[in-house]
Amino acid sequence: MKRKVALHNLGCKVNAYELEAIQQMLEEKGYEIVPFAPGADIYIINTCTVTNIADRKSRQMLHKAKKMNPDALVVACGCYVQAAGDKLKEDEAIDLIVGNNRKKDLVEILENVLTEREQKQKSFLVDMTHNREYEELSISRTAEHTRAFLKVQDGCNQFCTYCIIPFARGRVRSRRPKDVVEEVRRLSLAGYQEVVLTGIHLSSYGVDFPEGEKETLLDLIRMVHEVEGIQRIRLGSLEPGIITWDFARAIAALPKVCPHFHLSLQSGSDGVLKRMNRRYTAGEYREKCEILRSVYDNPALTTDVIVGFPGETEEEFEESRAFVEEIHFFETHIFKYSKREGTRAAVMDGQITEQEKTARSHVLLALDEQRRREYMESFLGREIEVLMEEQTEIDGVTYWTGHTREYLHVAVPSKENLMNRMLKVIPGKVYQGAYLME
After folding, report:
1. Quick count: other Cβ atoms within 10 Å of Cβ 216?
2. Which of 26, 50, 192, 410 could crosslink 435 through cysteines, CB 3.0-4.6 Å?
3. pLDDT reported for residue 126
4. Residue 44 pairs with which residues in a beta bridge?
5. Alpha-carbon distance 284 to 116, whole Å?
6. Which of 242, 330, 346, 345 is nearest to 285 (CA)?
């Protein structure tokens, strides 16, 4: 009888990619994948540790799995368990702990445990501080039917003062270009037209390769661009430092690269950026946006901003707000600073109250809503290309929805199956955050 496995992911697109790779390894071994609900024999939760809230959600999901079936084997893997270490051995809701860089071995570990060959060992963790091996995982399909996320890089060397990820994920490790291209080819043959290159610190891709074998992110993008069948290449989050005139002109010359760039900001105040150890100034960040807007016609620029970082004064917050308003982002993802044990920021003076963080967050959320609509309205009456993704119903009418190259959401009325079709449309109005076609 097939064992039933339920999977749940917490956190980023890299985590999601890894769990999809684990799912495909399980299916190849004959396991049956079932919904995350009562009745599974095995529950696998890929955890996140980016904030204290993420830690709490990870614990809650692990305990929920054990409650759904007390006799099931509950497996905790990923960043939270890596950061927490062996102290989770005492948690009775967790039967098996698999850290980062052991996910590729998860099925083998699982089978050894199930056959009681290693029943006394509960924790399988690697010391990520000294690990330099890229963990090879791959997929041949993805939960999304038209867009495939590919992990091409792991780890981070930046050590921002608020971030635990370098400790949970280790130092920068890059996937070999030939392995990335092979996976892209498989996905293209499976019908995918768009790939998204992702990583923990994507801009650092290739810095760990030995001398004489150096390949940069630009080199990788060019190789993926040559894969037949792929129509779009989208990039994950980038650090401002990678945006130079040479880099921008090079990718602008590659028609498959989407004009949609997520540049991490975190604050528009130089004082806060320095305390965060972000290694650039607001002025330098502005220059990067100007470069992209010089080589592309109206590109979508999105970002992250943290409010309420320790010591952030009202004047510094106003500097940050004014900077976000000036840059005119398409989307701004706003996060209230979350104290993370083990980071330098957690012990800094000047911790901001939750009430003040919430108030500052609301200010930027209102600005984000305004700027998002303004950016969408700038495309009204212009022909745009949409990759159709899924069917939905809006106000009783059947629509197919998809995204433009700038990642603008479009809804087209049709009962015909438009899955994975590229359409050219001219939007006439914005409705609930999307272009609603008549």
Report:
1. 18
2. 410
3. 66
4. 7, 75
5. 57
6. 242
Q: Which of 195, 259, 191, 261 is nearest to 226 (CA)?
A: 195
The answer on pLDDT for 124 being more than 90 is no
CA angle 380, 384, 389 (to 5 degrees): 115
Q: What is the pLDDT of residue 290?
A: 98
- Write down the pTM of the prediction: 0.90
- 10 Å Cβ neighbour count for 349? 6
Give the whole-angstrom CA distance, residue 178 versus residue 186. Answer: 12
Q: Using CA atoms, how far apart are residues 323 and 341, in angstroms rounded to an integer?
A: 30
Burial of 325 (0-12, 13-18, 19+ CB in 10 A): middle
Q: Is the pLDDT of residue 1 over 80?
A: no
What residues pair up with 280 in beta bridges, in sequence order?
none
Q: How far apart are CA 298 and CA 258, in angstroms?
A: 12
- Quick check: 191 and 228 in contact, CB under 8 A? no
Whole-angstrom Cα distance, residue 437 to residue 425? Answer: 8
Strands (E), 223-267: 232-235, 260-262
Backbone angles phi, psi at 338, to 5 degrees: -120, 120
pLDDT of residue 341: 85
d(C-alpha 401, C-alpha 407), whole Å: 12
Sheet containing strand 397-404, edge to edge, reads: 422-425, 384-394, 397-404, 409-413, 434-436, 430-431
How far apart are the C-alpha atoms of 220 and 87, rounded to whole Å? 40
Between vectors from CA 152 to CA 147 and to CA 155, what angle results, nearest 5°?
130
Q: Are 207 and 174 in contact (CB under 8 A)?
A: yes
Q: Which residue type does 213 have?
A: E
SS3 389: strand
The sign of the torsion formed by the CA atoms of 242, 243, 247, 251 equals positive
φ, ψ of residue 325 to 5 degrees: the values are -65, -40
Task: Say if CB 89 and CB 57 are below 8 A apart.
Answer: no
pLDDT band at 428 (very low <50, low <70, confident <90, very high): confident
Report the relative pairing of strands 173-174 and 147-154 from DSSP bridges: antiparallel
Token pair belonging to 151? 């992990």
Per the DSSP assignment, residues forming a β-bridge with 266 are 305
Say which range, 50-54, 278-282, 331-335, has the weakest mean pLDDT. 50-54
